[in-house]
Write a structure and sequence with these properties.
With about 675 residues, the chain is an alpha+beta fold. It has 24 helices and 26 strands. Helix 1 runs antiparallel to helix 2 and helix 16 crosses helix 17. The N and C termini lie far apart (about 60 Å). About 0% of the residues have low confidence. Keywords: Coiled coil, DNA damage, DNA repair, DNA replication, Ligase, Magnesium, Manganese, Metal-binding, NAD, Zinc.
Length: about 675
């Protein structure tokens, strides 16, 4: 119980710090997803231990203090925020809670709308004319932004229709409309490009831009930002018995509402709608981060009341976060095909980008020092390039004093031979040439996707072939016969036949893929292509000098030495001759075309073609692809759910194109 209490106090302190940055200072050291993850953990702990809930908990209030410099406005009815859920299971738990409170067996009709990534505001109309506007602020007191709101064309200065004014929560002739100030993706990118040209700091996300624009002291600057507004709530009684009717009235009054809004009879309807929206999310004009789901019947909604900071009858169903917080339970060491010792964080399982992550590479000792990471730390994890799990930040303020330092071993954890730090890099290697881990990992790499790509020959089958003594190295794979494989456990005649056929289909290979398959340290997809472009054949590369290799574009001294030394190692020479007796290398022609000299970076998922097909077509037209965005990048191709590469491209002013434009270029 003491540990739980301590964790809750640490979480409250951290959340308050980051919430103040986000709501008051309009900046944030960590991502919104990571902050959501911390809040989610606190809410779950408080649900489990309700006696530990205190009035000062972030779960019991909306936000921080309002900014100075604007007149304060007190909201007559508080602007509440919503509780977040991230999974179908958590959503179902919310449904059970409300049906239990209502003493009914079936979930009431629900209304689902998009959760815009913008800034919530309140608009008060007096006699049908806009009288005042305020930000949400801390939920009770906001900032007067009336002058800036008047510059937004999506907001009517006079209501289109005169609403009935009976039974309002306000003074007799007033009505309050609530909604979200947002900006289009194109508008967001355009403003950031302009700021890059002027040498100004770019906005991290559309919500920050909307907030920053609305808080300008000069309304002309706000007007130039072309902000938009979507209404979603009427405070008071205009005869709206359902939330659906509320949207209809808002449209009659002259406001935009969510075109995607959807009535759902069952939770299956909600899940299908969420999947559809998440699939098409990147095609939307605006950024969204989930759905808002609420009970459609307003009387039932009001009956459910409020719990802490949130109405019980509504929930924010968030999309899978791109970042989340979790705890590092341990750090293990893996040995790769080159003998490199890689520390790997063992994590409390957490969902990031729709995938459950339990491990993340820490790369090397220097990275651990840079992060200041200890075993037991709370960390922010993401997925590098939208795929590979990585640890991005340590939240040191959540430490309890029980965390442990990690030291990379000086002996290989597999063969126990000595391990040495490289003179040229922060990497540590097992010095035993016959280390079993190197051997096994090297064969996994050889048959893998970027090398020989032998269908059906994965790590588990390679393990069986090695354990049974059927292969000693990767070259032996091409000598396998059906009769060798068929007697093995779980391998029938058909599967043995399929594997042998797949092996024979790969007895001819391109020069770049062959170079990747050799497993030379530092030689990946791009370096292999650069070497193939420069030398044109394996014979010329094998005979080349250090100076000749060093002349290759994008190849530095460390890679040069690694390539040169590999071809002069006696073991590698024997292995290469053996391999060349079994496979052939296709004649190589360096590509040339309209993309010559151009470098592309792909981010997010493409719909019309796979990422590998896109890379192949770029190279066929003479271009290059890279995994990271830099000053030398010419184009970033943004597919569905682009990751941090797109943010970096915006910062550097690199041209960003969507899939449609990319296909047109091809």
């Amino acid at each position: 119980m003491r540990d739980v209490k301590d964790r809750i106090e640490k979480l409250k302190k951290a959340i308050n710090k980051y919430r103040y940055q986000y709501h008051v200072l309009n900046k944030l050291e960590i991502s919104e997803e990571a902050l959501d993850s911390l809040k989610h953990e606190l809410k779950k702990l408080e649900d489990e231990y309700p006696d530990l809930i205190t009035p000062d908990s972030p779960t019991q209030r909306v936000a921080g203090k309002a900014l100075k410099g604007f007149k304060k406005i007190t909201h007559i009815v508080p602007m509440l925020s919503l509780e977040d859920v991230f999974s179908e299971e958590e959503f179902s738990d919310w449904e059970k809670r409300i049906t239990k409170l209502l003493h009914i067996s079936k979930t009431p009709e629900l209304f689902a709308e998009l959760k815009f990534d913008g800034l919530a505001v309140s608009l008060v109309y007096k006699d049908g004319v806009l009288d005042r506007a305020a930000t949400r602020g801390n939920g009770k007191v906001g900032e007067d932004v009336t002058q800036n709101i008047r510059t937004i064309e999506a907001i009517p200065l006079r209501l289109e229709a005169k609403p009935p004014l009976g039974g309002l929560a306000f003074r007799k002739n007033e009505i309050e409309i609530r909604g979200e100030i947002i900006i289009t993706r194109k508008g967001f990118e355009k403003i950031n490009r302009e700021r890059v040209k002027k040498g100004e700091q770019i906005y991290a996300n559309p919500r920050n831009l909307a907030a920053g624009s609305l808080r300008q002291l000069d309304p002309k600057i706000t007007a130039s930002r072309r902000l938009d507004f979507h209404a979603y709530d009427i405070v008071g009684d205009l005869g709206q018995r359902t939330h659906t009717k509320e949207h209809e009235i808002l449209r009659e009054l002259g406001f935009k509402t969510d075109k995607e809004a959807h009535i759902a009879k069952t939770h299956e309807d909600i899940f299908r709608f969420k999947e559809k929206v998440e699939r098409e999310r990147e095609k939307l004009e605006y950024e969204i981060d989930g759905l808002v789901i609420q009970v459609n019947d307003n009387a039932v909604f009001d009956k459910l009341g409020v719990a802490g900071k949130a109405p019980r009858g509504a929930i924010a169903f968030k999309f899978a976060p791109k970042e989340a917080t979790t705890i590092v339970k341990n750090i293990l060491v893996q040995v790769g095909r080159t003998g490199k010792l890689t520390p790997v964080a063992v994590l409390e399982p957490i969902q990031v980008g729709g995938v459950t992550i339990s491990r993340a590479s820490l790369h090397n000792e220097e990275e651990i020092k840079r992060l200041g990471l200890k075993i037991g730390d709370t960390v922010i994890v993401g997925r590098a390039g939208d795929v590979i799990p990585d640890v991005r930040k340590v939240l040191k303020e959540l430490r309890r004093g029980k965390e442990k330092e990690f030291y990379l071993p000086r002996k290989c954890p597999v063969c126990e031979h000595r391990a040495e730090r490289s003179k040229d890099s922060p990497l540590t290697f097992c010095m035993n040439k016959n280390c079993p881990a190197k051997h096994r990992e090297g064969i996994y790499h050889f048959v893998g996707k970027n090398a020989f790509d032998i269908d059906g020959l994965g790590p588990k089958i390679v393990d069986v072939l090695l354990d049974q003594g059927l292969i000693q190295d990767a070259a032996d794979i091409f000598d396998l016969k059906e009769g060798d494989i068929k007697p093995l456990e779980r391998f029938g005649e058909k599967s043995a036949e399929n594997i042998v056929r797949a092996i024979h289909a790969k007895e001819k290979i391109s020069l770049p893929r062959f170079l990747i398959a050799l497993g030379i340290l530092h030689v990946g997809e791009e370096t292999a292509t650069d070497l193939a472009d420069r030398f044109g054949s394996l014979e010329k590369l094998r005979a080349s000098s250090l100076e000749e290799i060093n002349e290759v574009e994008n190849i530095g001294d460390i890679v040069t030495k690694s390539v040169y030394d590999w071809f002069r190692d006696p073991y590698n020479k024997r292995y290469l001759e053996k391999l060349l007796r079994r496979v052939g290398i296709e004649k190589y022609h360096a590509p040339s075309g309209k993309f010559k000299g151009k470098t592309f970076v792909l981010t997010g998922s493409l719909e019309a073609i796979t990422r590998d097909e896109a890379k192949a077509r770029i190279r066929k037209l003479g271009g290059k692809t890279s995994e990271s965005v830099g000053k030398e990048t010419d184009y970033v191709v943004a597919g569905n759910e682009p990751g941090s590469k797109m943010d970096k491209a915006q910062k550097l002013g690199v041209k960003i194109i969507d899939e449609k434009e990319f296909l047109k270029m091809l």
